[in-house]
Amino acid sequence: MNSSVFAAPITFTVYSSLGVYNSALVVCIFVLYVSGLCINLFLILVICVESRLHRPMYILPVNLALSGVMGSSCVCPIIIKHLIADRKETSLAGCLSQVFFCNVYSCCIFCLLALMAYDRYISICKPLQYHSIMTPTKVKLMLTGVYFVLSSSSATQVYLTSSLTLCSHTVNKLLCDSLAIANLSCTHTPLISVFGMCCAVCFIVFPCFLVILSYVHIFIVTLKTSKESQRKALHTCTPHLVTFINFSAASFFGLIYNRVGHKVPEVFNVVIGINFFVIPPLLHPVIYGIKMQEIRQSVKKIMKEKITQFR
């Protein structure tokens, strides 16, 4: 690792062009971040407290909520700090730490959505085998594998990026990403680009393919069933489908932000950059809380018990 690189901080130039929008952005990001944090932690608490929710189809949304908390927490406090502070800069070590957690967050959500699609596929297409296939132990092993592989790949990417010698230390973005740091390098290093592309294919494209494949099978199976069974299948799959579409759309705009952010107006640049880390973590627990009946019932039960205690 090139230790000399850590002497010079990374400066974010985009903040200086926001002007009168600074205060509004601070309030907006703070409210959205705290709201998302509270809603996610509340969903986690409800599922952890209610023993009847200790099942794979609820364990996976808990991990989705935890990933959302990680993603928003690695970005929002830093952005708020830069909007308030006079100096819009951070050390390269801090920048690389943000890259690590951002990479884990974005890939983890897609992997979790693939696992949730598989869970729905087994539940609808192989209902008699569901409890033997989707056991809590198997789900925990799959989750452990996902976290281990994602952490290892992200750590490798951060290590490769940290070995670069930088000729510039200014970034026209809200936050750090490996592509932005690689563009500051004195020499072009194709290894980092190739490794990043491989990670994107393995942890984003492939999980998306699995989600689509699962729903193709679900669609084929449900077409052969009664209208009532089709309605139940749709009700079961709706939270996951809405979550998948929401995060895929946010990821698409995030990709635009990474590739052509310097060509669009600064305010639009900022909105796209924030959206990926704020909106999905805020909406995902709301979607599951509204659409999944047992979660709604558990929330009502807990709220009723708390109200009764205070009387």
Describe this protein's structure.
This protein is an all-alpha fold and 311 residues long. The protein has one domain (3-310): Rhopdopsin 7-helix transmembrane proteins, CATH 1.20.1070. It contains eleven helices and three strands; from the N terminus they run E-H-H-H-E-H-H-H-E-H-H-H-H-H. It has a three-stranded mixed sheet. Helix 1 (21-49) packs antiparallel against helix 3, helix 1 (21-49) runs parallel beside helix 10 and helix 2 (56-73) runs antiparallel to helix 10 (266-291). The longest helix is centred in the middle third of the chain and has 34 residues, at 92-125. The protein is globular. The N and C termini lie far apart (61 Å).
Distance between the termini: 61 Å
Enter the CATH topology name.
Rhopdopsin 7-helix transmembrane proteins
- How confident overall, as mean pLDDT? 84
CATH class: Mainly Alpha
Number of domains: 1
Backbone shape: globular
Listing every helix as H and every strand as E from the N terminus to the C terminus, the arrangement reads: EHHHEHHHEHHHHH
Contiguous runs where pLDDT drops below 50 for at least 5 residues: 1-6
Strand content: under 5%
Major β-sheet annotation = 3 strands, mixed
The radius of gyration is 21 Å
Give me the secondary-structure category: mainly alpha
Portion of residues within helices? over 70%
DSSP, total strands: 3
Q: Helix tally?
A: 11
CATH fourth-tier homologous superfamily: Rhodopsin 7-helix transmembrane proteins
The gist of it:
Helices cover 77% and strands 2% of the residues. It has 311 residues and is mostly helical.
